[in-house]
Amino acid sequence: MKLQLGCGPLALPGWINIDNQPYDGVDRVLDVTQELPYDDVRFIFAEHFIEHLALDDATALLRDCRRALAHDGVLRLSTPNLDWVWASHYKRVMTPQEAVLACFAINRAFRGWGHQFLYNETTLTSLLRDAGFARVVRCEYGASEHEELRGLERHEWQPDFDGLPHILILEASGRGGSAPEYLEEPRAMFRRDAAAK
Ligand SMILES: C[S@@+](CC[C@H](N)C(=O)[O-])C[C@H]1O[C@@H](n2cnc3c(N)ncnc32)[C@H](O)[C@@H]1O
Fold first, then answer.
1. Which atom of ligand 1 is nearest to the CA of 114?
2. Could you report the per-residue pLDDT of 70-90, keeping only the tens digit for each?
3. Which of 41, 56, 157, 168 has a 20 to 30 A CA-CA distance from 193?
4. Residue with the nearest Cα to atom 12 of ligand 1?
5. Which three-class secondary structure state does DSSP give residue 128?
6. Ligand 1 centre and the CA of 7: distance in Å?
């Protein structure tokens, strides 16, 4: 069994395509922040989706993916790379025009398209370990050690910036992972600030 979460109108043949909107090709209309009604899943894929969830919903979903996956199951996440966003939009010294453009562009990256939270590799890896995944590997666009997970990304590809990929793609597997202790304090602070809105 293979699940695509937050598929939008981009259903994948041979996968169970899930979205909370009834786009053409969607097999199950579900809010995936509620428990996934599946067990023993082989692969879960989500492209340009995790950044659309509030952080607590995203972390709960990662845990639920670990629960729903088979022992040897794999979760593949494909999401904008915060490192790329920051490095490609912002310079320390800018002309006034560049500064205005950078200000709007970086705010758009954080808030545009319904984005809720952008991830860098270390943070998303830490959250995946916190969700119980023991092994997290970064993948190239369209590439995977698992044949079923190759060639899945369909979003625009942009060249690396300063060695940083535009899209962050991680595959998580195994059991028994745990969060690094440095995750807790910034996450708790973020939660407090979000609750105080
Ligand atoms: C930016 S779109 C990505 C669509 C597609 N994966 C792609 O790469 O173009 C995010 C999708 O997530 C869906 N979505 C948002 N929140 C959801 C939720 N809680 N449960 C299921 N789908 C959700 C939206 O309806 C939308 O289709």
1. 1
2. 999 999 999 999 999 999 988
3. 168
4. 6
5. helix
6. 6
The one-letter amino acid code at 184 reads E
pTM exceeding 0.85? yes
Q: Is 10 in the pocket of ligand 1 (CB under 6 A)?
A: yes
Count of the separate structural domains present in the chain: 1
Mean pLDDT value of segment 46-54: 97
Residue nearest to atom 13 of ligand 1 (CA): 6
Question: Which atom of ligand 1 has the smallest separation from the CA of 7?
Answer: 6
CA atoms within 13 A on the CB side of 109: 21
- Write out the DSSP string of 54-97: -HHHHHHHHHHHHHHEEEEEEEEEEEEBHHHHHHHH--SS--HH
Q: Are strands 69-80 and 167-173 parallel, antiparallel or unpaired?
A: antiparallel
42 CB under 6 A from ligand 1? no
Verify whether ligand 1 is closer than 6 Å to residue 48 (CB atom). yes
Range of the domain at 18: 2-195
Report the CATH number that the domain containing residue 106 is assigned in CATH. 3.40.50.150
**C-alpha–C-alpha distance, residues 170 and 76, integer Å:** 6
**pLDDT digits 0-9 by tens, 105-117:** 999 999 999 999 9
Q: Which residue matches tokens 């600030």? A: 193
In whole angstroms, how far apart are CA 172 and each of 20, 25, 73? 24, 26, 9
